[in-house]
């Protein structure tokens, strides 16, 4: 196999596979998992419970991690 083809394989593995598996597949799995959890809460405990869980998750993801935890790690 020519050297240039080996070099292209390195870039393919590092970029295309990571984009396909990490970006799309992992995002899909996380989205399905958060949806299942909120759906289960709605089914078992009611709408208010699902709303509170979603609100709590958003506080952690959009406020605590970027504005409180991340500056401490830098």
From TrEMBL:
Superkingdom: Bacteria
Name of the protein described by the UniProt record: CPBP family intramembrane metalloprotease
Record's keyword terms, sorted: Membrane, Transmembrane, Transmembrane helix
Membrane spanning stretches: 20-43
């Amino acid at each position: 196999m020519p050297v240039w083809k080996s070099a292209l394989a390195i870039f393919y593995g590092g970029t295309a596979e990571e984009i396909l598996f990490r970006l799309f597949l992992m995002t899909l799995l996380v989205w399905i998992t958060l949806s299942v959890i909120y759906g289960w809460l709605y089914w078992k405990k009611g709408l208010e419970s699902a709303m509170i869980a979603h609100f709590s998750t958003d506080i952690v993801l959009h406020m605590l991690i970027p504005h409180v935890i991340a500056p401490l790690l830098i």
